[in-house]
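Chapter review: from sequence to fold.
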Amino acid sequence: MFEIRRYHTADQPLWDDYVSRARNATFLFYRAYMDYHADRFEDYSLLFYKGKRLYALLPAHRIGKALYSHYGLTYGGLIMDIHVTIADTCTLFEELNAYLKSQGFEQVVYRPVPWIYHRHPSEEDLYAIFWKCGARLKLRNIGTTIFVQQHLKWRKDHLRRLKKALANGVTVERNGSIADFWKILTDNLMERFHAQPVHTLQEIQLLKSRFPDNIIQYNAYREGRIIGGLTFYITPQVIHGQYSATNDEGKNYGAMEAIYEQVLNHDYRDVAYLDFGTSTEQQGAWLNEGLIAHKEGYGGRGVVYDTYEWNL
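The token string follows.
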């Protein structure tokens, strides 16, 4: 029923056109985003054709005899437009498994797009991988999401810091300097977690240049000094906080609260969701309770980021 083709660079216009009209895709699936770190992954993305029509996409890469979808991205999974049906999706995964076996694969590791990013319901793949692939849950992370239109009241400590920010002249700049923020971010991560950001400064600047409307840097200032910032990924349904950090002055004077107040109540008040991202470590086994409580203080509650696997 399906013809399965491996992605080649000549397919980029066709791939990107499909992403632009898919019901569960974000800008992370455009090749200009996926390929910025192409040197780190052996790309094994797949295109599914039904007759002459491109039916679906699978962003993926190969490690040994396993197909991953896609560890270079926050989420992956089958990309579908409005015409994809559940019956066809079941057939697609049956034929995908046969194709992968013929190519020498032995395992699939699968990361679906969380439902908050869907412009229309798009969980056909979850049904199909359970019944047709025998998929099992490999990993579950917990994120925190605000339903923006519910306008839940912030916790008292956040309201107190917002009041302090406003009283002490903290200002917020949209599309502020990523370079200025990156020093605060890297210092913060190294001090607290002995870690580095997933992206280097050069990488995030490159991606910002490619997606200027989707990657927005908010910085908070006091007396002309940067005291904190948030890097947002903007998608049709969701504002996602990709990176956030403050220095000691920013913590004291409510830099985060000032930024979230600007974003939620002014710049993006009509968006459906704000996603703070996950608060787990050690592949989901350890919950950072202090971090997630901070996010819950804005009214956020849990949305899971799952990873499934099955053998071929």
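Two observations follow directly from the output. The radius of gyration is 21 Å. The first strand starts at residue 2 and ends at 6.
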